[in-house]
Amino acid sequence: LATGPRQNNGIFYEIRTYDIKPAKMKEFLELANKHFHFRTAHSELVGFWYADLGALNKVLHIWKYDNFAHRTAVRHALASDKDWQGKFISVVLPMMEKQHNEVAYLVPWCQLGKPPKEGGVYEWVTFQMKPGGPALWGEAFRAAINAHINTGYTRLIGVFHTEYGLLNTVHVLWWNESPDHRAAGRHSAHEDARVVAAVRDSVRFLESQQNVLLIPMQCSPLK
């Protein structure tokens, strides 16, 4: 009951967030765009973004793995990759203030999506739910997400439920054409009786939530 249902295969996603020293943020982004192909040669990058609103000097990237043995093999290969270690890792480590990672699964009712076009913005919303897992709050949470999808103003990319990290955490990744398009859509959603009812039911299980507006990097598959 602590983790609840998930997809039947072993695929999981590692979510990594780095806090970068303010004076080094521009340099970090330039190096990442220039050298990140050394990293993506080893495993699949879902997306790479930097925070624009809701956090500053922070980057977030998501990696897909077939299983934990796959991740272990990739980490070993990276440790031996001279280009990755010499041209990127050794240079950017002094630029970082903090690193954090989580392992998460896609919820079983969600497949990883893609935006309809390039050039939009992403919203990363983190929900800290009450202990008990999806057995307690899963259906109400799903209904709240679907209510927002049904308004049509936003595109769902993925819903991730943590397995390692702070438990009972759900990350939802949305795509919007622009921050203003999102703002207008949210305004309309708040006046939609279906959304209001679904959210009212879901927040009974909510401890806290936080959202960050993300801008995709040039090296990000999701743009």
Automatic annotation (TrEMBL):
GO biological process terms held by the UniProt record: mitophagy
A Pfam family matched in the record: NIPSNAP
GO terms under cellular component: mitochondrion
Lineage per the UniProt record: Eukaryota, Metazoa, Chordata, Craniata, Vertebrata
UniProt-recorded name of the protein: NPS3A protein
Native source organism of the sequence: Ptilorrhoa leucosticta
PANTHER family for this protein: NIPSNAP-RELATED, PROTEIN NIPSNAP HOMOLOG 3B
Domain NIPSNAP, chain residue ranges per copy: 13-111, 122-221
The family this protein is said to belong to: Belongs to the NipSnap family.
Highest taxon of source: Eukaryota
